[in-house]
Amino acid sequence: MTTARGPYSKSARVRAAAIEAASEIFGNAGYRGATFKDVAARLGMTHAGLTYYFPDKDALLAAVLQERDRRATEPGTSLPASPTRDDLIEHIMNMLAENMAHPGFPELHCVLSAEATADDHPAHEYFRDRYRKARRLLERALAEAAARGEIRSAPAPKQLAVLLLGVLDGVQLQWLLDPEAVDPREGVRSFISDLLAPPQPA
């Protein structure tokens, strides 16, 4: 197996380092609070030097979000085609464990998604569409589980999907603010096990 060498390998390394630095800086200061020069300085580069790899801060933000999505779709991180109730719970808990192991990404999500509620934010459409996709995916999986009799049919899958995403975001935000007092795994597992409880026997 050969490895990339020369300017292409260096370019890939610098781009990866810039994305990592921007993820941390955007997560701490927010997109609007951070500057392109902040990222360049973290890398020991000039503003002009960083533009060789990313033309502007918007392009860097796009690369950060693409990296976030790439990690979220790595093998073993996505739901099966027709997930069972147990598959759903295991997937949510695995995703939560991954976020706790790499807190930079949930922190980035909390900061940028809040900022992106403004229509003129460069990530507004990204987060709107990402939530739409997540709701549709969960709604379909929950409807199939309800049809198989694995979970109750109420609340309706559409509302249940909104609730699940809201709980995950809210619990992770509290954990980021006070990690010593909040254990996301304990609260989330208890909540979703009850929310996705099987129907009561007739």
Question: What's this, in brief?
Answer:
The protein contains 9 helices and no strands. The chain has 202 residues and is mainly α.
Describe the overall structure.
By secondary structure, the chain is mainly alpha-helical. The chain folds into 2 domains: 1-68, Homeodomain-like (Arc Repressor Mutant, subunit A, Orthogonal Bundle); 73-202, Tetracycline Repressor, domain 2 (Orthogonal Bundle). 68% of the residues lie in helices and 0% in strands. The protein has 9 helices and no strands. The termini are far apart.
Helix-and-strand structural type:
mainly alpha
CATH architecture of the largest domain: Orthogonal Bundle
Number of contiguous helices: 9
Extract low-pLDDT stretches. none
Count of domain modules: 2
CATH superfamily label of the largest domain = Tetracycline Repressor, domain 2
Give the secondary structure arrangement, pairings included.
Elements: H1 7-29, H2 36-42, H3 47-51, H4 57-72, H5 85-101, H6 104-115, H7 124-147, H8 157-177, H9 184-195
Helix pairs in contact: 1-2, 1-4, 1-6, 5-9, 7-8, 8-9
